[in-house]
Amino acid sequence: MLNFFRKSALLFFVLFSISLSAQEKKELDIQSDVSQIDEEKYPGALVMYKSTKQVYIQHEGIEMWCDLAFHYKAENFVRAIGNVRMKQGDTISMRSNYAEYNGDTQFAWASGGVNLRTPTATLDTDTLYFNRIKQQAYYRTGGTLRDTASVIESKIGRYYLDQDKYSFIQNVVVTNPEYVINSDQLDFYSESGAAFLYGPSTITSETSTVYCERGYYDTRNDNGYFVKNSRIDYDNRTVYGDSLYFDRPTSFASATNNIRVIDTANNSVIKGHYAEVFKDKDSVFITKRAVAITVQDQDSIYVHGDRLVVTGVPEKRIVRGYYNVRLFKSDMSGKSDSIHINQANGLTQLIGRPVLWSGLSQMTGDSIHLQSNTKTEQLDSLHVFDNAFLVQQDTIPLFDQEKSGFNQVKGDVLYGTFQDNALHQIDIIKNAESINYMRADDGELQGIDKSKSASIRAILENNALVTITKFKQVDGEVFPLSKFPKESREFEGLVWRGDERLLTKEDIFKGEAPFTLTKIEGIPLPEIDEDFFDNSIPDEELDIPEASKLTPSDLKNREEDAPEIGVPMSDKATIKKETKTPKREKPTPKFKVKELPNLKAKDSTDNES
Q1: Half-sphere exposure for 216 (CA within 13 Å, toward CB)
Q2: Per the record, which residues fall in region Disordered (predicted)?
């Protein structure tokens, strides 16, 4: 009984081996109206012609038609000539002038007007290699892919049938009615229209240019995001960020982390860590350590707030800042709840508990306006409306244990003028009052002058009060320190905020919690599959039929055709698997222009009467 089982098992193994061998070398099935043998001219070939029907070839799920075929039965090989068609199920069909097919290796090669069709795209090239075992096609002499939205050209291309994916290398150009993409390397998923860009790449249209060195673009919905050395160029703005999202139909862009928005029309820069740009509305919103930097007379003005908003065309640009606004210039700084800057007329308005420091002087009021000369870009004047208060701490302590006193000027309205961008003259209008610590040239206190008048003019040199002139004085007296009580040394409403003064541009963030950048979902490097051809096989062992037009050099991978960017499949455990479409939702704009509070303060003319 044991011998019976052994013989049965041996018989089964032999039959299985014969069956497997027959499957591996299944012969080509070729049919034609006319066929002949001409051993002298075509040794080893059965020549088959078209009469009423084309020559028909079938093998392992692939069908071919042609006008003329040379069938080399011993090598299970066919050469097809004239109006060649090849079809594999419902997924792929190909036309060409010439083709070869090896039944043993299931390798096809086509040349001359090659047209490959899939359910989602059409590829045209001069020469195409098709490996049915790998289900991959390859060209390296230039090709053009056409899908429902775009035309893609490249020197080298590889098609993965199981993923409906094309990998394009060298001189890649995607042409769409709305834009053109140029890239060194691009992976394209035909079914979804998803394009992954690697290496220096641009997306150019009439209204913008996107640059990146790694990015994703949805060619169907016309949007994408970019995560390496990315920027968007508009007519007069350039947006930089670690991560950029761009939606062309709505002209909307958003940026995350290390953002710069450069305004070339107004010589300014906005920085922060989250921004939204609405091109059609000429508006930019920026938050998370937002800073606007404007160059003025070879000096930079820094404006920081929880949120900055820039709106309007270049000649009518408006900058608005909301909540905890700080302003810094080399010789001036300030704070307020909000700010409104009109770059067209040079007017800056500090609104809500404003304070302004110019040198040693502190100015406060209900609102403060700074006026710049739009031609010279120098500060021209300032206005403090309602409850104007100018205070400057005296430079010498009164006694060892007593703090310094305060020089003070207050009134309804304050007007100031600048010389060479430095505050030079101050006029206090209506209900003016002053307290002035009078000192000799050696610093000795001579007395304290307290007075009331219709108006007061103060002159500053090197940021210090040097003279005070009173007009229509109503009341006034100079007191020695010993007869000037402490409770009378400060006017009602004095709030000294010298410890809040900004001394450097870094101080605009003083007191804020440390900022942590948002973690960005990146785009992994592409996986480089194994070479299309197997270079490990010696030339003499390549399965190339003698009648083939191919040479060993045709079936070798060339170094100059290899992708420059990517991670080999052997290292794929170290990277994330790339999917057909990135797992990232389209961002929803956080800001709406119509919902913004109106920060425009009253005109300076309102208080001039």
Answers
A1: 26
A2: 535-609
Q: What is the pLDDT of residues 206-251, one digit of tens each?
A: 989 999 999 999 999 999 999 999 999 988 889 999 999 999 999 8
Phi, psi of 240 (to 5 degrees): -115, 150
Burial code (b: 16+ CB inside 10 Å, e: under 16) for 504-514 equals ebebbeeeeee
Question: What global pTM score does this model have?
Answer: 0.81
Phi, psi of 592 (to 5 degrees): -130, 130
Q: What is the DSSP-derived secondary structure letter of residue 40?
A: T
Q: What is the mean pLDDT of residues 58-78?
A: 95
**Separation CA 275–CA 243 (nearest Å):** 11
- For the chain, give the percent of residues with pLDDT over 70: 88
φ and ψ of 573, to 5 deg: -70, -20
**What domains lie within the chain, and their CATH numbers?**
142-338+493-526 (2.60.450.10), 354-489 (2.60.450)
Tokens for 561? 């055709």
Q: What is the pLDDT of residues 165-191, one digit of tens each?
A: 999 999 999 999 999 999 999 999 998
Q: Are strands 92-102 and 107-117 parallel, antiparallel or unpaired?
A: antiparallel
Chain centroid to CA 59: how far?
A: 50
The residue behind tokens 């307020």 is: 336
DSSP 268-313: EEEEEEEEEEETTTTEEEEEEEEEEEEEETTEEEEEEEEEEEEES-
- Cα 272 vs. chain centroid, distance in angstroms? 13
Spatial separation of the C-alpha atoms in residues 443 and 602, rounded to whole Å:
42
Nearest to 408 by CA among 528, 493, 301: 493
- Can you tell me which residue has the tokens 């060892």? 400
Start-end of H helices in 139-226: none
Number of Cβ within 10 Å of residue 39's Cβ equals: 8
3-state secondary structure 576-603: CCCCCCCCCCCCCCCCCHHHCCCCCCCC
Residue 22 has a pLDDT of 40
User: Pseudo-torsion of CA 170, 171, 172, 176, nearest 10°?
Assistant: 180
Phi and psi at residue 13, to the nearest 5°:
-60, -45
**Could you give the maximum distance between any two Cα atoms of the chain, in Å?**
136
Rounded to whole angstroms, the Cα distance separating 473 from 215 reads: 72
Residue in 161, 189, 187, 159 with CA at minimum distance from that of residue 172: 187
DSSP 385-419: EEEEEEEEE-SS-SBTTB---EEEEEEEEEEEEEE
State residue 604 phi and psi, 5-degree precision. Answer: -65, -20
pLDDT tens-digit map of 322-333: 999 999 988 889
209 in Cβ contact with 239 (< 8 Å): no
Measuring CA to CA, which residue among 267, 249, 269, 250 is closest to residue 259? 269
